[in-house]
Amino acid sequence: MPAGIVSYGVYVPRYRIKAEEIARVWGEREDMAKSLNVFEKSVPDIDEDAVTIAVEAARIAIMRASIDPARIDAIYAGSESHPYAVKPTATIVGEAIGVDHQLTAADFEFACKAGTAAVQACLGLVTAKLIDLGLAIGTDTSQGAPGDALEYTAAAGSAAYVIGRDDLAAEIEGFYSFTTDTPDFWRREGMPYPEHGGRFTGEPGYFKHVTSATRGLLKKMRTIPEDYDYAVFHQPNGKFPVRVAEKLGFSIEQIEPGLVVPWIGNTYSGSSLIGLAATLDVARPGERIFLASFGSGAGSDAFSIRVEEGIEDIRDRGPRVRDFLKDVRYLDYAVYAKHKGKLRL
Amino acid sequence: MRSVSIIGAGCTRFGERWDDSLRDLVVETGIRALEDANVSGEEIDGLYVGNMSGGRFVEQEHIGALICDCAGLSRLHVPSTRVEAACASGGLALRQGVLAVASGYSDVVIAAGVEKMTDVTGGVAADALAAAADREWECFFGATFPALYAMIARLHMHRYGTTREDLAEVAVKNHFNGSKNPISQYQMEVTVDKVLNSPLVSDPLRVLDCSPITDGASAVVLAPTEEAKKYTDSPIRILASAQGSDTLALHDRRDITTLDASVFAARRAFSMAGLEPKEVDLAEVHDAFTIGEIVAIEDLGFFDKGDGGRATREGLTAIGGEIPINTSGGLKACGHPVGATGIKQAYEMVLQLRGEAGKRQVEGAKVGLTHNVGGCGGTAIVHIMSR
Q: Residue B245 burial by CB count (10 A; 0-12/13-18/19+): exposed, middle or buried?
């Protein structure tokens, strides 16, 4: 029994700060944006957090496929910026979108890949026929310490996927995960900003895990990069996904439709799932998409996805990812600092 | 005093050795050096290890006992000593080993160097390295190592007409050499343009003027020259081992465009070896920053003061030039695991003098010099060796 994506929704706050503005404040080199291939990043409004943007994305996902929220039996919300240390994000989202209360729900955390972990959890329950529909969310208003390299990319965005067996927009043909204990990036309890191992986050972190998960899935599926029309690799910046795609034998053309990080930044748990949504926005039935997330700590979930006829029915019933790149408002560093709560009064 | 020779040498690949600990690096290089020297552990009666800051980099002190343990020699209770002179720790370990064998106190000695630097973030590593400068009179006022060497560069440029491009030529040459060295951290060549457009660190020094953060270890085995042939057909004889000191802080120096410790150690070494600078076929010098190499080739007597930039620009220090400098790639391209660098210089010289340096071989190399500096010249160590 095939299972997969019944609907999807994305939300990205409309505020932006340019990398060059951050570089100006910290006296960093002018070509910072070019070196990261991230020119601007999204910034949440003053009253937005990982919950509110998750609600926005979930509402779009529900609306896009005209789903009765009461049919949703599970909500898993992945984030590394849950507003509450204790108290779930998933329950707030559930109430906001109007689920009935026969519902299982929990929050996930796995740095940038908690969203794809939520997809896997829903897929398991759906495939086992323990539930009919599950809502998997990746949502973050991520934190970057002032002046840290991460501040140029740590952005806000959310993606919500309804996972089920019927009326599929895309089938998830299979997945393969690769997980190790690798301390490349972390935030201790009570600390406002994460720390990271600098260059250690690259080769032993991102590249090792994404390449291992990708090669593992290609082997499991007996596919090669050319079998896919599109590919999405987690986008911590604009360079890593391009480099890992080249290394693995995928082309720039395959990843280009999903590569939105230069204009919204790294939306952490939302990142690879927003890239997938941008790809679903343009993919045609029968086409195949390769997706690999990455979460520091560290792990990567790779998915083989086949687009179904259902995509044509739902696609235009909600905003596309690229709609969120239009009509943006730019903030200077001072107002951005206020939005992000960096000013402690 | 007995004549001392290097009977074997080993080195790890230099670079970001994420999967290897300080111990792994020590074991890897130790095995290579012992195999190369064809000696068994039971024959070793002394160890010296250069290590700048195990405490800061991997929270491990007592490196002397550690390497003895790693070498499997703890049950024989072989004396093992860690020496520290910041970035000259390796050179100093070699010198201590030479003195031990020369004096007759020891017969077969391992001189090693190791540094594991990538377990900490860049900021922690930079601060650990800054401890080689004068913490109270330099670091507390904001000076970092690149800043101190940038001041040397500025005055050198002002006084002698050394150009920004001359500095870049040092990096271009050393990256070229490094690209021919299998243990080198950087295997890629760079252009003058690339150096000039790399991010600014401390004006006029840019990223590609600076040596990197590196993991690595290196070891050589020393024995009395009269017994060296028992172990190897190609011993490398130590003709001179010299050391000089100077003020810790740069601003207390007579002249910041000259490292007087290097001048002192070089004069001593040449006098001990009975040689002139022009009789040296090649040298490994301390290019932690590109300006460091230009100053070094002047201080060591290879070129007149102020002429180092021109000599580099004209290719006199390239392989095939008048005196090839840093055939290994130097600290710049081969990498700079601070405690290991001084021993790696000796390792490179052993390969060159044996004629085993492959694509970077200096034809007919007979006499080589190694020059290792601690901080910005508080310590300088010079060795001259020949086949």
A: middle
The partner residue sitting opposite A199, judged by closest CB among B16, B199, B200, is B16
Rounded Cα distance, A277 and A317, in Å: 14
Query: CB A204 to CB B200 under 8 A?
Result: no
| B107 and B243 housed in the same domain | no
Which of B16, B17, B18 to probe by mutation at the A interface, max A CB count within 10 Å? B18
ipTM: 0.73
| Closest residue in A to B19 (Cα–Cα) | A204
Q: Residue B16: closest CA among chain A residues belongs to which residue?
A: A200
- Is residue B334 part of the annotated active site? The answer reads no
CATH number at residue B148: 3.40.47.10
Taking a C-beta distance cutoff of 8 angstroms, is the pair B247, B253 a contact? yes
Looking at domain A173-312, its CATH architecture is 3-Layer(aba) Sandwich (3.40)
Each domain of chain A, given as residue ranges in start order, spans: 4-169+319-339, 173-312
Check residue B323 and give its pLDDT. Answer: 98
User: Residue B55: its pLDDT value, please?
Assistant: 96
DSSP letter for each residue of A63-109: HHTT--GGGEEEEEEE-S--S-SSS-HHHHHHHHHT--S--EEEEE-
CB contact under 8 A, A198 and B19: no
Kindly state the tokens that stand for A300: 């990567």
What does the pLDDT read at residue A277? 98
A29 pLDDT band, cuts 50/70/90, is confident
| B12: containing domain | 4-121+214-236
Beta-carbon count within 10 A of A30 CB: 10
Task: Please indicate whether, in this complex, the C-beta atoms of A198 and B122 are within 8 angstroms of each other.
Answer: yes
* Active site amino acids of A: 80, 112, 234
Q: Exposure of B192 by Cβ count < 10 A (0-12 exposed, 13-18 middle, 19+ buried)?
A: middle
User: Do A173-312 and A4-169+319-339 have the same topology in CATH?
Assistant: yes
Which residues of A fall within a CB distance of 8 Å from B185?
none
- 8 Å CB contact of B19 and A204: yes
pLDDT at A229: 98
Contact A203 B19 (CB under 8 A): no
Nearest alpha carbon to residue B174 among B345, B373, B324, B10: B324
Low-confidence stretches of chain B (pLDDT beneath 70): none
Partner A contacted by B19 (CB < 8 A): yes
Q: Cβ B121–A204 below 8 Å, yes or no?
A: no
A198: nearest CA partner in chain B: B121
* Closest residue of chain A to B123, computed from CA coordinates: A198
pLDDT for res A345: 75
Cα end-to-end distance, chain A, whole Å: 56
Cα–Cα distances in angstroms (integers) from residue A140 to residues A112, A157, A322, B63, B105, in the given order: 9, 6, 19, 45, 66
